[in-house]
UniProtKB/TrEMBL annotation:
Keyword Ubl conjugation: no
Entry coiled-coil feature ranges: none
Transcription as UniProt keyword: no
Entries under InterPro entries matching the protein: ActD
Pfam (any one): ActD
Keyword field: Membrane, Transmembrane, Transmembrane helix
PANTHER family documented for this protein: LIPOPROTEIN-RELATED (PTHR40394), QUINOL:CYTOCHROME C OXIDOREDUCTASE MEMBRANE PROTEIN (PTHR40394:SF2)
Protein name: DUF3341 domain-containing protein
Organism of this sequence: Cryomorpha ignava
Transmembrane portions of the chain: 58-83, 103-126
Amino acid sequence: MAEMTHTNRVIHVMFDDDLKLVGAAKRLVADGIQIKDVYSPFPIHGIDPIIGIKRTRLAIVSFMFGALGLSLALLGMWYFMIYDWPMNIGGKPSFSLIQNLPAFIPISFEFTVLLAAHGMVITYLIRNGTLPGMPAVNPDPRTTDDKFVIEITDQENPGASTETMGVLFKELGAIEINEKQLAKK
């Protein structure tokens, strides 16, 4: 069976102000146009629900890494201080984790925070594809300085093109409109 190649168009609409971008996003979504992504030099608060991005589950992942850190810290301290090599330090009993727990709280807390923070950062980088060595996906380098871009794909909006929507984009305050053809197998 022969492979079929489909053409996928991507439209990048550039703005010079974040308020214009938010207004344009609201209008486009109200007109039934799905926005794939927004590129910005800084976070635009309130844009996520407008373009349909769901709330992140990163806090749940952080909690799971923190619980793992707490468990590993308590298991390690039990093994090192009670099971493997019990030591009499300051007259504390060395045969029970419960009786030594107050002394283990600082280490448990620190290890919980360590694993939660590192696990959350690594999960974030993997999920967003921004680990060192991964290729960056940015339609225009000016979005890292002072410009804002809305990305609209033909896959989510069949028939969308710069010819059909160019007037609307200019009306919404766009300063530049680019359309790219991406070959997709």
